[in-house]
Amino acid sequence: MTDSVLSCAADPMGAAIYDFHKNGKADVLRVFSSQFEEDEIPVADLFREFEDMPELEQVALEMASGKILDVGAGSGCHSMALMEMGKKVKAIDISPLSVLVMKDRGVDASQVNFYDKSYSERFDTVLMLMNGTGIIGRIENIPAFFERLKNLLKPGGCLLMDSSDLRYLFEEEDGSLLIDLADDYYGQLDYQMEYVGAVDKELDGVKGEPFDWLYLDFDSLAFYAEECGFKVELIAEGEHYDYLAKLTINQQ
Ligand code: SAH
Description:
By secondary structure, the chain is of the alpha/beta class. It has a 7-stranded mixed beta sheet, sandwiched between helices. Strands 1, 2, 8, 9 and 10 form a 5-stranded antiparallel beta sheet that branches. Helix 1 runs parallel beside helix 4. The mean pLDDT is 94. The protein binds S-adenosyl-L-homocysteine (SAH). The site of S-adenosyl-L-homocysteine has 18 residues, from strand 4.
């Protein structure tokens, strides 16, 4: 797992966020994957306000306390909602253009990779929202993820993260799962993004490198987290195989 950040030329999501922030509209943020059909992310959704957020995200924001770190903060939508609640938050993201937009919106944002060990501040709450398990990337990266998390949490601090369980993509009508056990874990995807139709010509057609993104189901998260010395609590379940979990360092 790399601990580096992106350049503007390889930052399609940042380009979409920047275009929307600056010009009030954004065209098409295309998502490719070797496992699925081409898809699109509605850019306006990345600017959602508290009232429009899924309930799991609202619950996480209400629970967050003390010094908060918003990891992979994107447009800064969660950081801004927390600031409106009077809470103290810092945001990090590998995307240079997203960080630029967040700063412009008044968020205390830095261009930092979650895995960069030189970022040594500690927090009471670490937030990873909108499929927060994605940043783990691949199953074999789980121990490195939890090592890093231990270094970001103050004593008694917690991680609040959400994810979807992609089992519904493989479920048969009778509820059985059609999964090839010889294959990689079913929530392990590769993605690539491209932003097309930008108002600013230099942002048009920006394409990123492929990256790994992990959708970890709750039972697997709980299993690995406990192996890595964390206590896991299921806080809430969403309407479509999604959940919010709270992880704290196991003191015993
Ligand atoms: N949390 C935001 C954005 C989610 S998209 C929201 O809910 O709207 C995921 C974000 O994570 C992107 O902005 C991406 O640039 C960022 N990201 C991906 N890997 C990262 C890493 N290793 N460290 C920090 N940010 C990362």
